[in-house]
């Protein structure tokens, strides 16, 4: 094989060619030229979006046989239109995969953050709607996410979970809207990337922030078998994160002052959830209303929990079709619960039963003299009648504990268990000292075992089961304000907390979960500024002030109130019943 020898002229031509190309490339790397790349790509994506909406060639032929303008017939003969129709036909036949890739990219990335009003509003508000992310329990996955390495699988899993949660949520919240258009915002890569940066998840700038955020979700839900609690935890976070977007798609409505009460009269199995308190200087409240704890029928954001609740109820009432479906679901849910073979209804005698012994190291609280445990009213010849509903949490080999039995009158020295969490006196705060004047009246109490995978939690409720008693709807007026002022004298003052590290920032959320499961109104918090450094936060349940705490930070003061209620739930619940009866709620 002969080798061709390069002459000096060939070498000079090669050098000149390389030099010319390099100079031309450098000349194109100006700010304007690079910016034009993005403009041209955006125009290409928009052009493809329009081309695929063109009528087909057959439809064009049929169009020619009708009476149309001569100018349209002339334009149909142009080679550019012919090219567009050819591209349309090829796309319909599945021959242009590149169109799919460009359209998918445009759908995820193509929203204009400069001119799109909804995106502008989102970027202005998203930092105030930032709930705490659930922790990643698997240490290996936690390290993997924190290092931003090898996130492909976790990111893919997280994206699928996120899209599933969003699709279901949008369908429930916007049953009459085009949720495909809404999801273009909620699933946009710029939005997901913004959350990744706000949560400070990025460690390697070469990794897209959205991938780290989605990988975090994937790490939360990656347990096998699937942990439903983990999915519910991430659902609550996502519902709040997308609120700055979704509130822009809600139609403007005039809030009905009695909407919540009107709604509760139509559907009895309502669950009102105070989902989030924003971090604005003047916080906003996100309230959601569910039917049977499953179907979302209304969401509202307001300057107070009551305003947000009435807005959510107003929107629910303005959607009668969706509301009717929710009613039917509630009725079916109630029938299934009433006729379920797992539920037993029986009457027990007043014979005392042995109480479970507290764990080692537990010290029973000793209230002051004069404080007694509330006793059931006598109904049958001096014997108390208890009605209990008991649902076994497992089938098969699991041995469920016996239903609760009524106890003779005794000192209040029992341990309370709620939501599978044991709240005993003296966890983070000193034991309360109730006076004889605050002793609750004896009321009939029904003991209901909630369905819990590990432990049946005993929940105390008044026997009345009407909608107004389970979810009382109080509205602020002059008489109500005067009543609140009178109640201030009976509000329990939480002892000062000197160690700030002992304040649990999840206490408010845990308290609301506990109250929801106990079918009690969610807690509300009112802030009063005492001086330049301290604020006083009063926590109310069902508009009844219960405890108040003083602290430098109002958010932590609210958490202190919530933690105190959880730690002393037995006493707090008795005091709440006393006030509720006295006020006629």
Automatic annotation (TrEMBL):
| Transmembrane segments annotated in the record for this chain | none
Extract the ranges annotated as region (Disordered).
330-387, 394-413, 420-441
Q: Which keywords does the record carry?
A: Hydrolase, RNA-binding
What Gene Ontology molecular function terms does this protein carry? ribonuclease III activity; RNA binding
* SUPFAM superfamilies with a match to the protein in the record: dsRNA-binding domain-like, RNase III domain-like
- What this protein is called in its record is Ribonuclease 3
Write down the top EC class of this protein.
hydrolase
Q: Which PROSITE patterns match?
A: RNASE_3_2
Give start-end of the signal peptide: none
Keyword Hydrolase set for record:
yes
Write the Enzyme Commission number(s) for this entry: 3.1.26.3
Record's InterPro entries?
dsRBD_dom (IPR014720), RNase_III_dom (IPR000999), RNase_III_sf (IPR036389)
**Is Ubl conjugation found in the keyword set?**
no
Gene3D superfamilies listed in its UniProt record:
3.30.160.20, Ribonuclease III domain
Q: Where is the RNase III domain?
A: 146-189
GO BP terms: RNA processing
State where composition is biased (Low complexity).
358-387
């Amino acid at each position: 094989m002969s080798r061709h020898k390069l002459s000096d002229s060939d070498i000079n031509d090669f050098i000149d060619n390389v030099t010319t190309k390099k100079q031309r490339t450098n000349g194109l790397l100006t700010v304007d030229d690079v910016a034009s790349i993005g403009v041209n790509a955006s125009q290409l994506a928009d052009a493809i979006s329009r081309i695929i909406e063109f009528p087909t060639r057959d439809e064009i032929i049929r169009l020619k046989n009708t009476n149309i303008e001569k100018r349209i017939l002339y334009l149909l003969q142009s080679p550019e239109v012919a090219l567009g129709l050819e591209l349309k036909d090829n796309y319909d036949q599945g021959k242009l995969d590149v169109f799919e890739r460009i359209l998918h990219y445009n759908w995820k990335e193509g929203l204009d953050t400069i001119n799109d009003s909804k995106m502008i509003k989102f970027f202005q508000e998203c930092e105030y709607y930032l709930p705490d992310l659930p922790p990643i329990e698997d240490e290996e996955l936690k390290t993997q996410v924190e290092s931003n390495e090898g996130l492909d699988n976790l990111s893919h899993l997280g994206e699928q979970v996120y899209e599933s949660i969003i699709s279901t949520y949008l369908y429930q919240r916007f049953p009459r809207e085009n949720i495909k258009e809404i999801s273009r915002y909620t699933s946009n890569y710029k939005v997901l990337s913004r959350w990744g940066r706000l949560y400070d998840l990025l460690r390697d700038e070469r990794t897209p922030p959205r991938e780290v955020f989605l990988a975090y979700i994937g790490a939360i839900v990656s347990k096998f078998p699937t942990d439903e609690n983990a999915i519910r935890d991430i659902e609550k976070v996502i519902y709040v994160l997308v609120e700055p977007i979704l509130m822009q798609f809600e139609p403007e409505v005039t809030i009905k002052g009695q909407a919540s009460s009107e709604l509760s009269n139509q559907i009895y199995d309502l669950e009102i959830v105070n989902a989030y308190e924003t971090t604005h200087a003047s916080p906003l409240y996100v309230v959601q209303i569910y039917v049977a704890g499953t179907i979302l029928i209304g969401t509202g954001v307001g300057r107070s929990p009551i305003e947000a609740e009435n807005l959510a109820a107003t929107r629910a009432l303005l959607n009668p079709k969706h509301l009717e479906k929710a009613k039917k679901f509630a009725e079916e849910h109630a029938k299934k619960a009433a006729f379920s073979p797992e539920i037993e209804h029986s009457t027990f005698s007043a014979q005392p039963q042995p109480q479970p012994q507290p764990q080692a190291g537990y010290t029973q609280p000793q209230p002051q003299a004069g404080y007694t445990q509330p006793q059931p009213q006598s109904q049958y010849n001096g014997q108390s009648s208890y009605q209990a509903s008991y649902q076994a949490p497992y089938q098969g080999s699991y041995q469920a504990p016996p239903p609760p039995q009524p106890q003779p009158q005794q000192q209040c020295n029992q341990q309370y268990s709620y939501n599978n969490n044991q709240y005993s006196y003296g966890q983070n705060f000193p034991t309360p000292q109730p006076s004889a004047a605050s002793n609750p009246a004896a009321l009939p109490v029904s003991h209901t075992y909630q369905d819990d995978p590990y432990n049946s939690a005993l929940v105390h409720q008044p026997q009345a089961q009407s909608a107004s008693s389970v979810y009382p709807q109080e509205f602020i007026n002059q008489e109500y304000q005067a009543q609140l002022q009178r109640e201030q004298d009976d509000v329990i003052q939480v002892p000062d907390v000197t160690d700030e590290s002992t304040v649990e920032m999840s206490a408010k959320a845990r308290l609301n979960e506990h109250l929801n499961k106990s079918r009690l109104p969610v807690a509300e918090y009112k802030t009063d500024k005492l001086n330049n450094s301290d604020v006083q936060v009063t926590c109310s349940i069902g508009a009844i002030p219960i405890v108040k705490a003083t602290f430098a930070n109002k958010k932590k003061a609210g958490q202190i109130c919530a933690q105190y209620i959880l730690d002393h739930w037995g006493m707090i619940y008795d005091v709440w019943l006393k006030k509720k009866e006295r006020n006629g709620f």
